Amino acid sequence: KHQQLKMATSNPSKKQRTDNKIKVLVTGGTGLVGRAIEKVVQSDPRENEEWIFLSSKDANLMDPVATKAVFEKHKPTHCIHLAAMVGGLFKNLKANLDFYRNNMLINENVLSNCHEVGVVKCVSCLSTCIFPDKTSYPIDETMVHLGPPHDSNYGYSYAKRMIDVQNRGYHDQHNRMYTSIIPTNIYGPHDNFHLKDSHVIPGLIHRMYNQMQSGGDFECWGTGKPLRQFIYSEDLARLIVWTLRDYEEITPIILSVDEEDEVSIGDIVRKIAKAMDFKGEIKFDTTKADGQFKKTACNKKLRKYLPDFKFTPIDEGLKQTVEWFKDNFDTLRK
Which of 154, 156, 178, 232 is catalytic? Predict the structure, then answer.
């Protein structure tokens, strides 16, 4: 069932309700980022905001009829669009067509229904993998459409790029404030810790946990050399809520830690080992694919708006994620 958070701390006047009340529908609201947003809005409630967090059980967003029904039911004024068909490198390699078709359907259904019910602002979540494979670094928001994405996940990447095209169209034709955010690699509690179809940090945590049960050394796929910027899910949630409330541009905004906080996959493995108190040896299987070597993102646009935003240090974020994983092992997504 979807979760509904009413943020009213007092009974506003009827005029306030009609003029200022906003109802935010969050698609993909029970996943990694949705759960973090729920925590953030509970810690910083606004009396004129009502938040509804949808899960895939509430509506199949690939189905236009089901999507229309859930938007008609809630009649939101604002939307945070997180729902997507997602997966790690190896899942993408096997099913690029599925990733393209299903995400195109989800995005078309969500954005068209936002428009139909009168949503005035929608913030959609993109990904750094949408950027051109052959590019200069650091990448910034102006470079999204300047060349083909990496071959490994072109289906997902092109579908996500099209959200930017749709946002521009809804603004130009209908004056809608539909925009998007581009986070770097997200990690944190409530992630999908599936051994094969997860992203890098949750996959590593789960595999290392299993290795600790059986004993022996830990083998990491690839060389460990690729570099990534990781953002803790609760940091990203605070920035998405800020985007919804205060960011007034149609063009995307990169939500990322600073460039100097980039870290290698090998370092991440060693940091996870420290957080889990893993004592074995760490080995790298260099016959496995690395994916892109780096995709350093520039957060200058974000820093122009929020120069003093403090990100959770990677060691602290990993510690909290590992603790959550251990505490919730029986019920988490795996």
Answer: 156
